[in-house]
Every structure is written in structure tokens, then in C-alpha cells.
Amino acid sequence: MTSKSRKNITVKAFKARIQHHLNFHAVDLSHSIDKKAILMAVCSSVNEIVFDKLQSTNIRRHERNSRSINYLSLEYLMGRMLSNNLHNLQLFKTAQAATKELGFEIEDIFEEGHDLALGNGGLGRLAACYLDSLATLDYNAMGYGIHYEHGLFEQQFYNNRQIESPDEWREYGNPWEVCRPEAEQEIPLYGHVETVAETDGTLRKVWHPGQIIKGVPWDVPIVGYNCETVNVLRLWESRASSHFDWEAFNAGDYQDANSAQTQAETISKVLYPNDSTAAGKELRFIQQYFFCACSIKDIIRRYLKHHDDWSQFADKFVIQLNDTHPTIAILELMRLLLDEYRFSWDNAWQMCKQVFAYTNHTLLPEALEKWSVELFETILPRHLEILYRINEEFLNGQVDKMWPGDTAMRRKLSLIEEGQQKMVRMAHLSVITSFKVNGVAEIHSELVKQDLFPEFHKLYPNKLTNVTNGITPRRWLKACNPALSDLISKKVKGDWAKNLSLLSTLTDYAEDKKFQQQFMQVKRENKVKLSEEIKKLTGVSVNPDAIFDVQIKRLHEYKRQHLNLLHILALYRRLLENPRLDINPRVFIFGAKAAPGYYLAKEIIYAINCVAEKINNDARINDKLKVVFLPNYRVSLAEKIIPAADVSEQISTAGKEASGTGNMKLALNGAVTIGTLDGANIEIAEEVGDDNIFIFGKTVDEIKALNRQGYDPVSIYNSEPELKSIIDWLDSDYFTPGKFGELSAITQSLLNDGDHYKVLADFVSYSQAQEALDKAYKDQAGWAKMAIMNTAMMGKFTSDRSIEDYANNIWSLDKNLPATQAVKL
Ligand code: Z57
Fold this sequence. Notes:
Elements: H1 3-7, H2 11-24, H3 35-64, E1 68-72, E2 76-79, H4 82-88, H5 92-101, H6 106-111, E3 116-118, H7 122-136, E4 141-146, E5 154-158, E6 161-165, E7 178-179, E8 185-189, E9 192-197, E10 203-208, E11 211-223, E12 230-240, H8 246-250, H9 254-266, H10 282-306, H11 313-316, E13 317-322, H12 328-340, H13 345-355, E14 356-359, E15 370-372, H14 373-379, H15 381-402, H16 407-413, E16 416-417, E17 423-425, H17 426-433, E18 437-439, H18 442-452, H19 454-459, E19 464-466, H20 473-479, H21 482-491, H22 513-538, E20 547-552, H23 561-577, E21 586-591, H24 599-616, E22 625-629, H25 635-641, E23 647-650, H26 662-668, E24 672-675, H27 681-688, E25 694-695, H28 700-709, H29 713-719, H30 721-731, H31 744-751, H32 759-778, H33 780-792, H34 799-811
Bound molecules: (1S)-1,5-anhydro-1-(4-bromo-2,5-dihydroxyphenyl)-D-glucitol.
Organism: Aliikangiella marina
Catalytic activity: [(1->4)-alpha-D-glucosyl](n) + phosphate = [(1->4)-alpha-D-glucosyl](n-1) + alpha-D-glucose 1-phosphate
Pfam family, one: Phosphorylase
């Protein structure tokens, strides 16, 4: 099929295809069609086009032999696929009309789809946005990850507490993947290393693994927006290999054979639910190695299919490490080059230094991965030997040259941390090997240079750099907010979803009364829709004319959902003291999952739910305040909340949020940010201007100064009467009748445990910014102008810009020809 006939596919033809697939799924068309069946039939109809495009993309790629970017990530938070694929294929309206003729609203069909939740939060969603942009910009890109049987857990609330249950995303099959048995891999684990003397006297290392696991690839097609490209996300599933103990099986020892299989399948069973903390579990380490080894072997297989020597390898492949999670890929490439392909040490090391680049996503010490030497020794003995040699050459070479005889410096920079238990520092290995290391927002990248890796920055002055994160405007505006998209398209000429900076023409209308009214009318319609969803999910009725104030992100102390909670309590208290207090009605909307093992995060959820219950049922405050915590926050829920948000809460302790990306999504949809000078908030403020954002709180330097002076939260508690009474209130049984001290874990962390994230230090400033915001909302035209300016000035934060930054400054990708000039097939 040519691109022309694709574009012209009629409603009639598309409907016929859906019917064909319904037939194929043996659905009796004389009866009412089940929603799941129609979903599957629509997906199959779309897939006919998608896989056809995938084929021609592959042929084009092969002909051009272009350089490829290989993105290694433990997480991909894809969300639902159908709506996005329809938009990217320009098929949305056609599919909408075709399904309508079959008696369905397309939105209802989308609701039947399950999120692909193979990630935790920002890092995983960033990977998904980058895949969208890589395809849209027609870069030769491949994503590699794990085909988890269970993605991020589902969350419910029971008695105000979080309950987790397993994510069953493949329960009824996943239409968006295809198995590729021809590319499966065998992965060794455990065992020992033998030194063998060759006939010429040289020594060779042979790893005799104790176990072999099979990696089965599943390919998810990634459809570019309004272009010919379809790339692939390749996800590895673990299975018992054919080297599996059939002897034991045949000898009747079925139990043993079966348990080996169970063990093998355990590797890709479940995603670790921690965000910004290292799990430190043996199975997690094996997951990392398993997927890196599969991916590196697949990359080599793809290269050797078209080349008969290694001379072009570093020209044709660049490998991006998404955080330190895939760092072990470095040692696996070294091992294969040395032991399988018989490279000299120097040649193998040169090769590795040319192909890897690393993105750092956090400064939090608890997230910086370390694995015990002991674990390496048991599971990857050969990799440990290679690591030791890299370390030796690094310390005796570069480190000794820069800091001769400085043993303290050697200890500090070594790949091995000495101590009770020797640990391998994965970030150090990534930094010394990679040709570029980037942070994810300007301030974060500066802190990486100045505070996290100052010595590495001195050793390699051109290595550390910045690429500010971005989000795809296809999912995060065009698909999730059709009403605003239509309004924008009336004013903005050209394909703004492909060139987001075009939105800046909206600044011309920021003070246009009619446009302001239309813009706020769209916002109100979105708020009405969200109100219905809130009612459905929580039973709480909210007023669409209230301010919708949104904090949606993982639950973490550094993100300070409890600072938001303290301010809600302040408002509640003020209203009880003066029921006629002149504030805008406000609905506080939370969405957040807590890692199951993160005690305080779960206590914060519990506290917010308890306070919400009290406030929502208190007739004295005349519905001026509502608090809702929406359960099971995930990509598809974000797509409903974001278009309806008036206020975006981005209130992390300065220096702690590497970038944030939810901040960008909310601003793009016309929410006004209240935030600290942290992560990408700083760059958002630069774009929208100080008049269109509410900035509060201590700066990074002020937080550092506080730490130097010695921070004393108790003195703040004692000197701020309102804050004191709120904290005491939370400590009483007011929100948990009859149960005293039920919420004291939080107050203790603030008062007795040092208030690590400076909640009390920022409270007064936050409360003042909230007052200014409330006042600003009363000026309807002024608020509309701010909201419009936010949408208009988000051009910088498209993930297309981020990907062009990576392509130009890190990956050196050749710009592919526009698809219209592509070789006709
Ligand atoms: C994660 O979601 C992030 C960093 C991590 O180290 C891990 Br583990 C998970 C987040 C940051 O916290 C955000 O600030 C950032 O925007 C996001 O990664 C994408 O870079």
C-alpha cells in the first residue's frame, strides 16, 4: 500500500475492515457487539497499516545503512496505545466516524484498553515520549527493555490506605506486540571462570555458566506522527532455555525441572515499584543483566548481519543508558568483544568508550545504584574481573596523572567503594566509560557538575552536559485535549503538534476578550468532564467553577505532598474561624502511588485521605474546599486530569527534583504553576515570564546555606503560630476520631526527625504564594491571560526539541531525508 492510499482510506473502507476483524474474531454480528471485541477489531485494523509501515521503514533503513540510536531503559510508561496511534496515523476522525456507524463512541472504546504501565514515573514516561519523537523525526531508533508480565501495581484505597494489586495488562492479550522468535537470545548466569592457556602461550578466560536463560523478544511498533516512520520497542521476556534440565525431567524428576522453569520466568515477572530509590535486590540485578545482555547481543547480531568486520560498529551504533540501571551493558559489551570476538583489551575499551552515553536523572543518594562485589562474584564472575581491570587502569592512569599519589582521591573515585561490604559504584562506571553524560534540566546538570561529580568534571571537562527534558505534544495536548487543540488550530497556522513553537502566536490573543472567553470555556468543559470522573471514582461532588488545583506525581517526601496538605489545613482552619472568608472555592486533586515499601509515603496518602474525608463532609465550610485523592494514578488518568487543571503544584525542595515533566504537561494545557526554583520549573518560568507563574520558597543556595548553618525546624514551629496549630491539629485525633497519634509519623518526621526536605522552612512562603494565586484568580481576564501565556510559551518543552538536542550534541545522528523524498518502494 502506498502512503497515498493510506491517507485516503475512507470511513467506509475502515468500517469494512473493522467488520472483517470482528468476523475474524468469530463475533456474531447479529447480536450486540462486545466493547472488548470492537476494541480488538479496531486495533487489528490499525495494525494492518502499522506493520505495513514498519516493513517499509525497515527496508528504507537498510538501504541507507544509517546510524542508529539504541535506548536502553528498565522502564517504558507507554499508557494506552490506540488513541495515540490513530492520531499519529492521522486516522482519528476516520476511526471515530467508522465506529460511530457501528454504534460506538470512540472514547468508550479507548476506555476498554489497558495502560502499558511498564514503568514507575517520570523516567519511564520520558522514555515513552522520546520514542514518540524519535519516530516522528524519522531517526533510526530502537528501544530496548523488559517485557514484564506485571507492570506497576494497581492502587486502591481501603480505609483511606493504599492497597496494591498486581497489574494484569496482558490478561486478554496485547494487540500492540508481536513475538520475534527468530531473534531470541541465550543468556548465561552464575558459574565460574577458567583460565586456559592457548597453544601460543597466551592466556584466555572462559566463563562456565551455571545457568542459561532464554530471552524472547516482543516488538511493540512505535508510530511516528504524520510521517512514514514506524520504529520498534523491543521488550525481552525470560524463559527457561532449551539447555533446561530435560534429563531430570525425563528421569521423572518433574518437580526440579519445573522449578528451573519457574526460576527462569521469574526474571521478567514483575517491575520493581520504586521510583528514585534503588531496590538493591538480587533479582533486580539479574533483571538488569538479563535485558542488557539480550540487547547488546541483539545489537551485535544486527550489526554483523550487514558487516563482515568491526570497523564500522561505533559509526553505526550509539547506546544511551537511561540512568545507571543498564550500566552492566558496558561490561557485557567488553566481555563479548574480549572473549567471543577476541579483541585486544585496548581495542575493546576504545570501542566501549565510543558507543555509550549516560543520562543521570537524580542527585538523591538513595537512588545511586551500588551492587555488592559479592553479588557480582556469584552471578557475573567474568564481568567482575573486567571491572577490576577497568578500575585499575583508571586509577593508575587518569586519576594518578591528575592527582599523583593522592590516595584519598583514589578511594573517592574508585569503581569500588571500600567498607564493611565492598560495593560497585554503577554511576562511576557509566561516567568513566561514556563519551557524554547529561543531566535533564539546566540546574540539575549544573549540580551534577558542581556537587555530584566535580572530580569527574575536572577529569573530563567536555563530558558533562545538559539536555532539558521534554514531552510529546501529540499525547499531552492533541490527543488528551481535543477541545483545546481545535481552538488552537483556529488561531495557529501550520502543524503545531510537529512544531510546538508555533503556539507562541497565541500570545497575540492573550488579552483578546473573545479568545480568553473561548479558552476558559474549553477549560470549563474539561473541568465538567473531570468532575464526572471524580464523582465516579470517589463519590465526591465537586464544583466545576472552583479552582482545580492539581498535584499528580509519585508520592515522595522530596516532592512534598505534605506541604500541600499543610496548606490545605491552613485554609480549612481559616474557614472554620471565619466561614465568610473571601476565597475562591478550590478543589485539591491528588494522584500518586507510593512504593509499597516506602512507609512515610504511605502515611502521607493516609493522612491526605483522612483530611479529605473530614473536609468533604464538613457542612460549615460551604463547599469552599474539597480534597480528592484519585486512586490508581497512571498515564490514562493523567490524560483526564491535566486538561482540567487550573493550578499545577510543583513544590519540591530546591535541588531535589532533577527536572519534572508533569510541570510541562500541565502548563501546556493552560494550568498556572505554583512552584519552587527547582528542575525545569526554572526554565518554565523563563519561558512564560515571572508574571505568569507563582514562584516561592528557598533557592538551592539558600537550602545549602540552611544545611551549613544547621537547620532547626522546631524553632520555625515555635515561631509560626498558624503552622504550629496546624501541626498540633494533625497530631490530635481530629482527622481520625478516637485514634490519637494516628498521623504522627508525619509530624514526627517534620519536628523530631530533622525535616529533611525543609517543609517548614518553605511553609510561610508557600502560603503567601497561594494567597497571591487566590487573589489573581479573582481577576478572570488576568487569569485567562496567564493560562493562555502558559500554553503559548511551552514550545521549548516538546520532546522533539530534546531529541534534536540529543541527536545533534550527543548521538551525532545523520538527519534522515524527509519521508516524502524517500525511495519509492
Ligand atoms: C525517576 O522517575 C526519576 C529519576 C530517577 O532517578 C528514577 Br530511579 C526515577 C525522574 C526524576 O525524579 C524527574 O525529576 C525527572 O523529570 C524524570 O526522572 C525524567 O528525567
